[in-house]
From TrEMBL:
Entries under CDD domains matching the protein: HAMP
Alphabetically ordered keywords of this record: Heme, Iron, Kinase, Membrane, Metal-binding, Phosphoprotein, Transferase, Transmembrane, Transmembrane helix
Molecular function via GO: electron transfer activity; heme binding; metal ion binding; phosphorelay sensor kinase activity
Lineage per the UniProt record: Bacteria, Bacillati, Cyanobacteriota, Cyanophyceae, Pleurocapsales
Name of the protein in its database record: histidine kinase
Organism, scientific name: Hydrococcus rivularis NIES-593
Enzyme class: transferase
Reactions listed under catalytic activity: ATP + protein L-histidine = ADP + protein N-phospho-L-histidine
Amino acid sequence: MLRLFKLGTKLNIGTQLNLGTKLNLLLVFIFFLVVSVSGLLLSIILNRNAEQIVTDKAFLLIETMSSVRHYTSTQVNPELAPRLETEDEFLPQTVPAYSAREVFERLRTRKEYQDFFYKEATLNPTNLRDKADEFETQIVETFRTQPTLKEKTGFRSLPGGDIFYIARPLAVSQESCLRCHSAPELAPPSQITTYGDKNGYGWKLNEIVGAQMISVPASTVFEAARQLQFSVIGILSVFLLLTIFLINLFLKKTVTNPLKKMSQVAQRVSTGDLSGEFKHLADDEIGILAASLNRMKVSLEIAMNMLNSESQQ
């Protein structure tokens, strides 16, 4: 019984609503549906686009650093390598990792790149600034356990925000590398003088000793995507509300107001007042209904006159 009462109450409320109110409720429902679905789809599209932007930047930078490493290895190192035996201090310019890092640090002096990072994270580096942290060590170990894995990407959360990283394995691919990293007694004297004989030794040919890593800030890009999403949703909402207003105005002028006037004419006719007439110039459904109402009024007026004539006889 309670369910039937509630259902009856809902139906009663629904039947009591006028046409304009029902239309507004429908338009409000459509408004929230369109905004919700559009917001969801826009969020997915913009997030994918932001991720693609971040990825493209990272790939461009890591390819650039790989080119710097190759240039140093093939052109700079052969020219400076003989001086390692005679110089009092080690010449880091002969090391591809050093060249790539210095070039990138120069790039970071520009404001738009100050939150980008490049590192050749190494488990046992000669220069301790290349020492892998805990997160980077896990990546290097992943490359060591999966030799066929050529690249690893993902997001990393830091206090300053999320960053997107690309990591590639660094392996000892040339015999010449072992000259400085196999054993301290085989290393150039200048290297021992500068870095000591404790770090960066014991490497083996084809061994993965580190990971080349580029870190690109992602928070700013995703924040810009969210701001764009809010802006688009705001503009869409304004246009939808304007559309709802115009639809209401149009329907009020062409549908609800004419129906109200016809209802008033019909009510006067039902009480015997046949003087009223509804005029609607448009040849649409409302016009057809108005013409039918006027014909009915004329027919009723004729019928009433005939009844009056018969009663007088």
